[in-house]
Amino acid sequence: MNVLGDGIFTTDGSIWSAQRKATSKIFTANAFRGLITDSVDETLAKLRAKLADLASSGEAFDLRPLFFAFTLDSFSLLAFGTAIGALSQDTPLPFATAFDYVQTGMARRFFEPMWKVTERYTEEGRRMKEETSVIDRFVYDLIEKRERAAEGVEMKEDLLSLYMKLRLDDGSKLSKVGIRDSVLNLLIAGRDTTAQNLAWISFHLLTRPEILAKVRHELENSPPVTYDTFKGLVYLNAVFNEGVRLHPAVPTSSWTALGPDKIANGPRVEARDFATLISKTLATFESITVLSLLAENFDLSLATGWLENVEMASTEQTPMYAFSLTLPMKHPLMVHARVREGR
Q1: Could you count the other beta carbons within 10 Å of the beta carbon of residue 302?
Q2: What is the pLDDT of residue 35?
């Protein structure tokens, strides 16, 4: 059972090339100024309202699920043309819970080369099959709804419509399974990596108030954050890049160079060099907008006793990592929130 199927992260050749071309059509400068910016702005407003409600309660809460809900809703708007309502839920959606579990299962397979055999007889294997079915039902339902809605009308341009229109080298369409694989691969990139980066960066800002003060100073002396201005926030971009360097979201996604090459706007690589690749523009834009929202509108503080009692990594002064395909924080990031004066 290959959870990611024949998606962009797991294929090469013509299938990879076709998916890459389709994806590149939506991740353009014009798209960022339109569809992508709109989806981020709409979801950002919901995140702000959710944080304001939590602040008014006075109770401590886990910050991590809010980031996952934000990225899931934002990406679903971009990919499917509709938010799935993660930020409006008090508990995680079944799809999100299933997705979290299968990521842990996929990470476990790196250490179990015979997993295709062993999972037939284990509880982990049974649950992997069950949770993958939850994911399949969720994605196939979205595809079928779009197919019904598109009958006789022009489809709006989002990732799902692009994949439905896609033609491979032989002129054939992607099958429904192929569309599922393509969307699911991008979902792991659009949801988990950004949410986890935001959690790690928030931890560092909460424990380093002098850095947060510099971020706020830069924001106070800069224009509102948009796609056209976010790259001008030099210090906040440096904070984001340092967070990604310290906590790469997908450490298992790596490549070995077959021959020498020069990465565009990057370093030269030689044959047999080992590299980990990190997606940039969408993750950076989303992260900068969320970090700006938090810094400008809320005073966050770690819950009393959290830092003293949370399990820490043995090699660094950060909370323990969870075992997963990506690199999430293992335990809740418990905080209090207060709406800043004048906001």
Answers
A1: 19
A2: 72
